[in-house]
Amino acid sequence: MLLRKQYDVPLARDPSSRFLVWITLLMSYLAALALAGALLVGEMAARWDSGLAGGLTVQIAPLPGRTDVPPLTARVEAALTVLRATPGVTRADPLGTDDAARLLEPWLGPDAAKDPSLPVPRLIDVVTDGTVDTPQLARRLESAAPGATLDDHAAWLADLRAFARSVVLAALGIVAVVSGAAVLAVVFAVRAGLAIHHNVVQLLHLMGATDRYVSRQFESHVLGLSLRGGLAGVALAAATLLGLQHAAEGLRASLLPDMNMAPWQWATLLVVPAAAALLAVGTARATVLRTLEALP
Amino acid sequence: MIRFENVGLRYGTGTEVLRDVSFTLAPGSYHFLTGASGAGKSSLLKLMYLAHRPSRGLITLLGRDVARLKRTELPALRRQIGVVFQDFQLLDHLSALDNVALPLRMAGVAEDDAMEHCVEILKWVGLGNHLQAKPSTLSGGQQQRVAIARAVINRPRLLLADEPTGNVDDGIGMRLLYLFEELYKLGTTVVIATHNEALIRRFDHPHLHLDQGRLHLLSGAAA
What we know:
The complex is a heterodimer. Chain A is an alpha+beta fold. Chain A has 2 domains: 11-50 and 157-292, no CATH class; 55-151, 2-Layer Sandwich (Alpha-Beta Plaits). In chain A, 65% of the residues lie in helices and 8% in strands. Chain A has a 4-stranded antiparallel beta sheet, with helices on one face. In chain A, helix 5 (154-196) packs across helix 9 and helix 7 (211-249) packs antiparallel against helix 9 (271-292). By secondary structure, chain B is of the alpha/beta class. Helix content of chain B is 32%, strand content 26%. Chain B is built from 7 helices and 10 strands. Chain B starts with a strand and ends with a strand. The chains are: A alpha+beta, B alpha/beta. At the A-B interface, helix 6 of A face helix 2 and helix 3 of B.
C-alpha cells in the first residue's frame, strides 16, 4: 500500500507537494549542517580531552633577582627528582630551550626565546596513570623547587567540555527548531490536501474506508516527498562541508577544528532524511486522523 | 433488516427535511423510493448509507442499532452498503477498473483477486472494452454503469441508488433496473430512489413515497 504508485486521493497534483519538497530540503540542509558541526566539535573535544587527561605540566619560573633560591637548572633537577619519586608518575621530561622557543615563536617571533633578558620559564611534561594526588604533589614541588607551579589542565579541560556541550546543545536546538518548522509545513500541506480533496475523502469515508486507510494515502505521499527533499538537503549539506573542508585545508596554523569527517560521521548524516521522513509520516497520520474525527 | 422509527432529520438549524419517518424493510426486499424533487429522497438515502445521523428517532441497519455503534464500527457496516450516487462520484484520476476496485482495496482484498473480480463485473455491465478508460472519456450511461459496478463489486447486503435513471434514456434506464433486479434475486436488499413513475410501473415492487419529508404512501412495505 505504501508503495502504490497511484493513490485514491490525487495528492501528487497538489501545489503543496512541490512546496513540501523544498521545505524539507532546506530543513534537512540546516539539520545536517548542525549535526555535522556537533559531530566535529564533539570529536575535537574528545581528542583534546584524551590528549590532556592524565597529563600534567610543571612550570618553573626564573625568579630573577631572588638570591635566596637555587638557580633555575638546579630547581628543574630538584623538581624532576620529586616527580620521578612520586607514585603514579610514569614519565617526566623537561622541555629543552629549543622546545620553549618553538612554543613562543607564534607570539614573540623566532629569536625571542634566545633573548637572555626574557625570563622564559622551564617546563616539564609529566605523564601519570591518573592516581596522583595533584595538590600534594604541587606542595612538594613548591617546597623542593621554589617558583614551581603544577598545572593539571583541569580549568582548561572544564572550559573545553563546557564549550563542546554548548555546541552540541546549540546543534540540538537548531534540529529542534528545524523539526518544528518541518512539522508545521507537513501539517499545512496535509490540511491543504484534505481541503482540496474533501469530496474524494468524503466519498472514501462513505464507501467504508477506515480513517487509517485514508491517512495511509497521505502518509505515502509525504513519505515520498520528504525522502526526496531530505536526501537532496543532505547532499547539499555534504557539498557544503566538503567545500569548507577544502577551504580549511588552505589555512596555515588554523584555529578551526579539523573539518575532515570520518566515514561513520558521513554515514550519520543519513539519519537526517530518515528522521525527516519518519517525522513527516507521523505528522501526516496525526493530522489526517484528527481531521477525520469530525466526519460522522 | 432496515428499520426507521420516528426518524427526523434537519440540517443545522433549518426546518426538518424528514419528519416522523417509520418503516421496516425485510432482508432481500426490493423497494422504489418515490417522490417529487425536494421531497427528501436523497436525505433518506443519506441516512441509510450513514452520511448523516438522524436528528431524532432510531435507525436499525442490517440488524445494528446505528445510535449504539462506535465510530470505529461504522466503516465495516458501510462496506456492506453499496451506493450508486446521483452524480456517480467516480474518481476522475482513476481508470474504470481502479474506480471499481476501490471497495475491494478498502476491504483488504488481494490485488490480483480484486482485479479479476473487477474485470468480470465490468464485462457484466458491458464495459469490458473500457477497463482502462478514465471517467471523463466515458458517456453518461457508461459512467453510470461504472458507478453501479463499484457499488456491487463486494456483494453488498444493501444497495441504494439515487436517481440511477436520471441521466440516461429510458432504454438504458430499463437495462440498469434489470441489473438491480439480478442483484435482488441474489439476496441483496435494494432501494432505488427515482421520480420516473413510468419506468418503475414496469416492475412489480413496493413503493415508499415521500412528500415534503413525510412518508405518505407505503405499498407492500411494513409500517
